[in-house]
Amino acid sequence: MAVHQRLLFVILTLVFTTFGFSQNFNPASWDNMVEKISDSEYKIIMTVTVEDGYSIYSQYKVDKEGFAPETYFEFKNQEGNYTLIGKTTEPDAKIKYDPIFEEDVKKFQGSVSFTQKINLINPDFKQIEITAEYQTCNDERCILGDETFKLNLDGSEVINEVATIDERSKTLSEKLKLDITGWDKYEKQNIEEKSNFSIFILGFLGGLIALLTPCVFPMIPLTVSFFTKSSGDSKKGVFNSILYGFFIFLIYVLLSIPFHLLDSLDPGILNNISTNVTLNIIFFIIFIAFAFSFFGYYELTLPQSWSAKMDSKANKIGGFIGVFFMALTLAIVSFSCTGPILGTLLGSSLTADGGAVQLSMGMAGFGLALALPFTLFAMFPKWLNSLPKSGGWLNTVKVVLGFIELALALKFLSNADLVEHWSLLKREIFIGLWIIIGIGLILYLFGKIKFPHDGPLQKLGKGRITTGILVVAFVIYLIPGLTNTKYANLKLLSGFPPPMFYSLYEKNSECPLDLNCSKDWEEGLAKAKAENKPILLDFTGWACVNCRKMEEQVWSTSDVYDMLSDNYVIISLYVDDKKELPQDEQFDFLRANGTVKQIETIGDKWATLQTVNFENNSQPYYVLLNHDLELLNVTNTYEPNAEAYFKWLETGLKNFEAGSKVNTFQFK
């Protein structure tokens, strides 16, 4: 398969799998075998069976310039071990018109065998590894397939190694299994992801901001004029502009695909990434670097050779592929302006419950906002006359973004500080630094300070004045956050500054809102029994934004606060706590899929406890239990709503007093 054809195959397939189609469904199943022909020759037979209504495509195209996919096999570990004899063969297939790709293709239904002969060079070589890339399609959709096969040349069954753990690890692993009861009495409800649409809108707004930067805005009239004039045909020019916009959108969506692959390998990996100290420090440094780049002290760009290579590809290839490379060139050239915004999107998505799904939604919104102008102005070229002229206002937007980058950089440093308990950025220090950054932005907007690319300021425009007034109001709002009063709870910013108990002021406890809580399961259970109170099991995280929103917007209300303080024992388990367990408490945990997870930190232990007992790895996650670990309330999902949360706690308390058994509840 040619490189550009394989690229297009992957692009088209990912479009299908990203939007609305389950990546777990695969209508193809494989049954492979090895036949020995002689001492040095073997025949590898790969047989695939596809479900009724689906087809799998041939290895060879009918139309070499077409878009239909090909089945592709890669025979690994060849060097020094074996060589291929000829090409991989397949049965003859009738050429048929394909309604999805609108071209003639060869494809198979039912079962089909692909055969490859090999010549053995290394007599000690025992096992061959093969990967297959393919698509199975019906009249409505296509499903991407990517399989890896291992076959023993002697025909024996491949035995996968089974991981084992020692007796000590088995004993400690068993302690994580709590034997929660009550599930059988009530139907579990599926937990819906919190408003993916909202992250899409945030991504869209980010894309609109990126449009107003010097890297992108001047490209709009230039690119539209190129498509509408160079084609010689206005309809073709409009079509190419639409295609160009679509490819811009697609490129940004594709950037999120690797995170879906990571998420499928380990459901907790994205949370680990978002709370990883090293990565948060790296993000902090990158955002500081981007901020000073936005200020105009230097320019950060991807290697110029990348954009030059993409540009030459676009000119050389032409057609659909050429337009794709033009879109890729724009993405690379504009990186110095779009990179910081995309970094913000990445960081906020991975710390949210939606993980890779929300990242894809955010990237889709960003790509759509960036792509729309190139399409709309091509369709309505007269609108170009209404665009403001490029000028100093573009640099003003860029500098303002630089101040925002500085503020966001502190969030990443704060995440690292919280999970490692360094005590560098206590809540009041964090808010104080935001106030300083806000004052700097105010001085800039009102012309009191300048940066390298700023020209002489003749007068303050309406945009500068309006933005300046908004920033002044925001700084005034931040000031009470420096105090130790009831006004220090900045509810509009819940989740961004460190929690209120992470303070320079002396607090009664290191729990949310000075409530009395335990941060150890066994200790909290013993306390609940001693006080004869029900348990609020709170799976939370130091870097969990939604956890802070629940604590500072819901737990802080008088009814909920009094209910928690007087009637419950709170057990808060921080799943991202990087503090190492004592050596004698560290162990290996054998997952259900046969892999081993090393339990080395407090967060490892509580995250595993949550996953094992509740089949859930999102935070915050709340469970009401009695002393016999029976569930006390029904499964439900709400927005952070103080009244609903109070009723949930109240019902759980009544069930505890009555000894009833019900189910769990989760807030997102």
TrEMBL record:
Query: Can you tell me where the transmembrane regions are?
Result: 197-217, 238-257, 277-298, 319-342, 362-380, 392-409, 429-446, 467-483
Domain Thiol:disulfide interchange protein DsbD N-terminal: start-end pairs: 38-150
Q: Does the keyword Transmembrane helix apply?
A: yes
Q: How does it sit in the membrane?
A: Multi-pass membrane protein
**Record-level GO cellular component terms:** membrane
- What domain of life is recorded for the organism? Bacteria
Domain Cytochrome C biogenesis protein transmembrane: where? 200-414
Task: Report keywords, A-Z.
Answer: Cytochrome c-type biogenesis, Membrane, Transmembrane, Transmembrane helix
Pfam family, any one: Thioredoxin_7
* GO molecular-function terms, A-Z: protein-disulfide reductase activity
- GO:BP terms for this protein? cell redox homeostasis; cytochrome complex assembly
The protein's location, in the record's own words, is: Membrane
* Predominant location category: membrane
Cite the InterPro entries for this sequence: Cyt_c_assmbl_TM_dom, DsbDN, DsbDN_sf, Thioredoxin-like_sf
Name the UniProt record assigns to this protein: Thiol:disulfide interchange protein DsbD
Q: Which organism is it from?
A: Winogradskyella wandonensis
